[in-house]
Amino acid sequence: MSILIDSNTRVIVQGITGAAGSFHAKGCRDYGTQIVGGVTPGKGGSRVDEIPVFNTVKDAVKSTGASATLIFVPPPFAADAILEAADGGIRLIFCITEGIPVLDMARVMGALRGTGVRLIGPNGPGVITPGDADRPGCKAGIMPGYIHRPGRIGVVSRSGTLTYEAVWQLSQRGLGQSTVVGIGGDPIAGSSFVDILDLFQKDPGTDAVLMLGEIGGSAEEEAAAYFKKNKTKPLFAFIAGRTAPPGKRMGHAGAIIEGGPRPAKGSDRPSGGSADGKRAALTAAGVRLIDSPANMGETLLRALK
Amino acid sequence: MKLHEFQAKRRMESFGLPVLKGAVIDSVQSVAGALAPLGPGPWVLKAQIHAGGRGKAGGVRVVRTVDEAKSFVSGLLDRPLVTHQTGPEGLMVRSLIAEPAVTVKRELYAAVAINRKTGRPTLIVSGEGGVDIETLAATSPEKIIRVEVDPWRGLDAFQARDVAFAVGLGGDLLRDSVRFFQNLVKLFLESDAGLVEVNPLGILSEKGGGGLPGGECLPGGECLLLAMDAKMTIDDNAAFRQGDLLKGADTADLSEAERRAAAVGISYIRLDGSIGCLVNGAGLAMATMDIIKLHGGDPANFLDVGGGASVTQVTEAFKIILSDPRVRVVLVNIFGGIMKCDVIAEGIVQAVKTTGLDRPLVVRLEGNRVQEGRAVLAASGLQMTSATDLADAAQKAVALAGGRS
Fold this sequence. Notes:
The structure holds two protein chains of two kinds. Chain A is of the alpha/beta class. Helix content of chain A is about 30%, strand content about 20%. The radius of gyration of chain A is 19 Å and the shape is globular. Chain B has helices spanning about 5-15, 30-35, 65-75, 135-140, 155-165, 175-190, 245, 255-265, 280-295, 310-320, 340-355, 370-380, 390-400; strands spanning about 1-5, 25, 45, 60-65, 80, 90, 95-100, 105-115, 120-125, 145-150, 195-205, 225, 230-235, 265-270, 275-280, 300-305, 330-335, 360-365, 385.
């Protein structure tokens, strides 16, 4: 079992004729994903490595029956690509593109509200439900497939390579993953930690969840409140950026500690997005914090024995 | 990217927002010429730096004579100004803004920012201006009014009226305030701003006929409101459509290293420690800094060479890290995902051969074709310490750096 995608999911790739789009479309297909088509306006009728290319998402959906899309469209056109996917009948959108203007995302989220369309990303590695020789999987993203093992740990993260590090540690210790979701490092994310935790909570194939947060925003604090309220499956968390200085954007557009003085102890004022504020909220909610990024796999292994 | 007050005010003026006609001063010689068109004085002089807290730090003064202005300017120009937001090194003052000094009846606060939780722009207004909004948020959150804005539509007139009445801007002030709040949101949306802040927003007069005369402020009429200070940041991701706005932005605060990094697509932020970090991916780069600290060391920088980590990027990254004299050890932490470790190892070897290496190097490689990668490093004859995992890498780097810096 898994969340969001499995071996039956039919996926198209928007921006399939670009360098990243074609490379990763093949990578996903080689992993076993049903990459049933691609979209590049003006390149309809051509093929990328046998994958048919369409001019519009509507055409692609009509011909292939796709329900999910993986977007590699460059930042100035990415918001339009997301809106086109939603309008074309796609229900599940994975946007890999990094560098989309924040206000474009604000407008996209406004347009998607109430439509039932789920957006994961942007600026994230995508989603993978690991597979092996016996169990076919599905990779809709840019992550290296070989580090994953099918299993019962859910992983959700705002980061790319840090997620690979965590997955690697889990797989090395025999802890497979049900699904690994990268919600992305942008200030406005299509899906939040809470959205994904809720899916893992309802998934009978997931026993425990590892959450990789970082400085900036309040998605981790919201996850803490969700955990406290819903008494979910065991939740483990690592928060990156304890040593990050305030006011500086740490690589990800959303990874910035904002605001003035630190809130007083016991204050419910947002922490400005500091790692310490997030860690305090998660600890208070009963989430199991992992201090060292070297101990992610080991901590889960010991706790779940 | 941050704009200076005078840049933000020029932009505000073009959106019909009431600002004073000011002059920019960038030398003592230009003081008299700058003040002449601003009337007889007194004038307000304000240092232009990308940080708040200027008033308390001595960066703002009301002056009555040209001589007084000159002596204030000469004391500030080309020197760092330290405020509670700049850090101990302060920020270099390269220009000042001069405006006629005005007295106001009341001061309010107005800003537009993105609410990350809801994903919407939000108009934030308080009847108490001139204070630190963070402090106000902590002590009297009920005094702050927030209105969420539809990013497609902008601020509706009724929303603007709600805000105006809530902070006591009725009567003759209503029409001006509604226009002010709507235009402020319009400015935010059309500039791809991350933040637009007016603090204080001055009320010059409660009644029509008492504000600044026409031409000083809004064209064709008097203005009852006045944006006394202005702060604006622009979303770097919108550079492709806000080129003109960003072209004028002052990037002198960026260090040489930060500039070089940005040119090749590397994120680099200098910190105070002694262990230089070279990592692929922002999350892993932060985690690497954190684990150095956990093992008793201090990171000298945040550096993300990108998920791919090309040879060019790795080479430039080495040069940037080694240009920092405080760096005593370099720690490379690469998780080869799609990239093969042997290709990355070749990149490291090439980079080190190009740049030369006068300090100890710790390398932790993991992921795709890691054995081949380690073999490349071993065969290169480079002096380095190999680490097996993250913790091992941090321990070895900290030991070589001699503990805390």
